[in-house]
Design goal:
By secondary structure, the protein is an all-alpha fold. It has one domain. The protein contains nine helices and no strands. The longest helix is centred in the middle third of the chain and has 39 residues. The chain is elongated.
Length: about 260
């Protein structure tokens, strides 16, 4: 009975947490897409600043990681394909793997480490120093002021970063293709494009938008839930990273299964 009680309590707490995330995400979406038509400011300047932090400054590390992942995929794929004399399929394997799955996932993981943790630390510090209470005293909604710019920046920049990650992954794979699989650069790019369908790219971009919403909701929620003291800020940051990684993988699983069952046979 004690084990069943613990399991039930964990499930209830998890569902309650997901409900809190959905509530926060819903309010952020309201202030992003609905409130501006009712006369409330959108704070585009803050959103642009967040987009610079989330997107532009993440390009160097994302480019490097995606390039190496593409090269690793080509090497691993060639390891098996050469047994069947099918090295010409390396380009397609890398392109499909990056656009459907690894491009959005790598981008989300990089953004979690850079920005999801930063969201939790920033809002958590404001919570500890009572700046959020000051905002409420001045009749400024904290969700509108703090979360909405991050929400808008993430849903815009995550797909852009995903496209760039896909390109760098294909570029990394082309290094092996040209060096060891008798491709030329134009032929490798052509083979990659010929292997892709529009749905491959679109499904990856849909995933990236959902990943952005998830990372924003978790990071901001953990920031708002921070207790008193600097130690709690560190704990909130750690929780934001761990929970974001788990939920991103879960969202990835859900949407991959959804696209699989909805795709034409």
């Amino acid at each position: 009975m004690e084990l069943a009680t613990q399991i039930g309590g964990s499930v209830t707490d998890g569902l309650a947490y997901l409900g809190e995330l959905a509530s926060l995400g819903g309010r952020a979406a309201y202030y992003t897409f609905v409130a501006p038509f009712k006369g409330q400011p959108l704070r585009l300047q803050r959103a642009v600043s967040q987009a610079m932090q989330v997107g532009v400054l993440a390009l160097p590390i994302l480019s490097l990681i995606s390039f190496f992942i593409g090269l690793i995929l080509a090497l691993q794929g060639a390891y098996e394909l050469r047994r069947f004399g099918a090295l010409n399929y390396v380009a397609g394997a890398v392109a499909i793997s990056m656009t459907r799955e690894l491009g959005p996932l790598i981008t989300a993981i990089v953004v979690i480490g850079r920005s999801g943790s930063a969201f939790a630390a920033e809002i958590g510090t404001m919570k500890v120093t009572e700046e959020i209470d000051a905002l409420e005293t001045m009749a400024i909604n904290p969700v509108s002021f703090l979360v909405t710019p991050k929400f808008l920046a993430m849903i815009v920049m995550l797909p852009c970063l995903t496209i760039w990650a896909n390109f760098m992954g294909v570029l990394g794979g082309s290094v092996f293709g040209v060096a060891k699989a008798d491709f030329t650069w134009p032929r490798y790019i052509t083979a990659s494009l010929d292997s892709l369908f529009l749905r491959d790219v679109v499904t990856g971009l849909i995933k990236s938008v959902m990943f952005g919403i998830t990372v924003t909701a978790v990071g901001c929620h953990e920031g708002f839930a921070t207790g008193g003291g600097a130690e709690q800020v560190g704990r909130s940051t750690t929780r934001a990273v761990v929970i974001s990684l788990f939920l991103v993988i879960l969202v990835d699983l859900v949407f991959t299964a959804l696209f699989y069952f909805l795709s034409p046979s």
